[in-house]
Amino acid sequence: MLKKILIANRGEIACRIMRTAQRLGIGTVAVHHFADRAAPHVALADEARELHAEVPTAAYLDAEQLIAAAQATGAEGIHPGYGFLSENAGFAAKVEAAGLVFIGPQPGVIELMGDKIRSREFAQAHGVPVAPSIEQEGDLAAFVAGAEAIGFPLLIKAAAGGGGKGMSIVRNAQELAARATIASSEAQRYFADGRIYAERYVERPRHIEVQVLGDGTGTVLHLFERECSIQRRFQKIVEESPAARLAPELREKICSAAVKLASSAKYRNAGTVEFILAPNGEFYFLEMNTRLQVEHPVTEYVTGLDLVEAQLRVAAGETLWLEQADVKLTGHAIECRICAEQPEHDFRPATGTVRKLRIPTGEGVRFDGGIREGQAITAAFDSMLAKLVVHGADRHAATDMIRDALEEFVLLGVDNNSDYLGRIFDHEAFRAGDLHTGFVVEHAAGLAPPPLDATDEAAVLLAAALATEELRRLIDEVPEPHASIGGWRN
Description:
It is a single chain. This protein has 490 residues and is of the alpha+beta class. It folds into four domains: 100 residues, Rossmann fold (3-Layer(aba) Sandwich), CATH 3.40.50; 69 residues, 2-Layer Sandwich (Dna Ligase, domain 1), CATH 3.30.1490.20; 242 residues, ATP-grasp fold, B domain (D-amino Acid Aminotransferase, Chain A, domain 1, 2-Layer Sandwich); 38 residues, no CATH class. 37% of the residues lie in helices and 24% in strands. It contains 20 helices and 23 strands. The strands form six sheets. An eight-stranded antiparallel sheet has the order 14-13-10-11-12-15-22-20, with helices on both faces. Strands 3-2-1-4-5 form a five-stranded parallel sheet, sandwiched between helices. Helix 8 packs across helix 9 and helix 13 packs antiparallel against helix 14. The termini are far apart. The mean pLDDT is 93.
């Protein structure tokens, strides 16, 4: 095992990695911008180093500062978490060139899978199903003509994309050229790479991903699948494992395809192979994420494995210590992402200060967070604040558990989506397992908040105020000079 690692990240994922590292006796180094100096991940680490930049995000993207901090503290490896530099092949190569261990895949594999066009070609060459597609190679007119030949609807994507950027659904020839131009412009702006491609769009698709673990020798295991179909603006907000209403034979086909892809790439460390599943049971390779996923806790719950520990063991040079038959699926796990946003305003990001935080507890309930009371939530970072995860005997039990946990959860001072998530879990379509990536749009009316009259609003605000510890203390406290006088009154 490594003796000390630096976590090149912040927030809940930095805290998550530190908890496993410290359980294993591995020293941890946190990094932070000045604005994050009092953040929970800084307090949790064994030691911390400040990164300097005018803009907070720029600090966490500064490869040279991160590597220098690792070297200065004697860290042997760097764990990138997710986001920031986690899928940056250049950063991984610099870490290795500096004589440090990159706790993730090989730089060449990151580069291969990070290019959506190259990764699709690689998947197709190794027998993994890929949807019919065409890439833009310069001439827009030729691209439009080729895309029309595939047939509508089409999905336009950025070759180097992610997070829904540079992505657009096109349903007819009249809008194709304009959408392609916009997508290419967005791709250039967000990824400095204007290449795009179009693929056949599957109506009412499900988003199924498979967790894989490899040791770099070609040996790869799958840790079963996750259902990630509940999304807003192409970004996941609810994930579960196993997938709802997935036939065992289809599960085996999808998981085997993921293993075939990762094994062909001699994949090292934890990763996720993502697929689009059509209503008729056909599935197509979507992309591979060469990092730990936000939703990894649901896999940990149903398999009993610690994925961060697995990452650290592989990074230290261990070959896989499990056989596929050793990986068992037990119960059902569901995760939801608590985000600082306003669902009623098209999920607009929100800011504020955490005035009150109450975290759900209980058997089978897990809260992965990196926030504290008094912390300012700004627009500098992604809107996700925490993850609430539950593990039950089956899907019905897990749904009830996460609904109850959301009722117990309190976050005041920052607009967030916790009530909205509760309405998702109450919805009859979710409970029936009728899931697809358009769920949020299709059921928008049923997911809208109920009307709140003036009396109800006043009652809610009063209850929230009375739940605040500081206010209760002020109510109970006797001010001077009466406190010195005691119980006697004139």
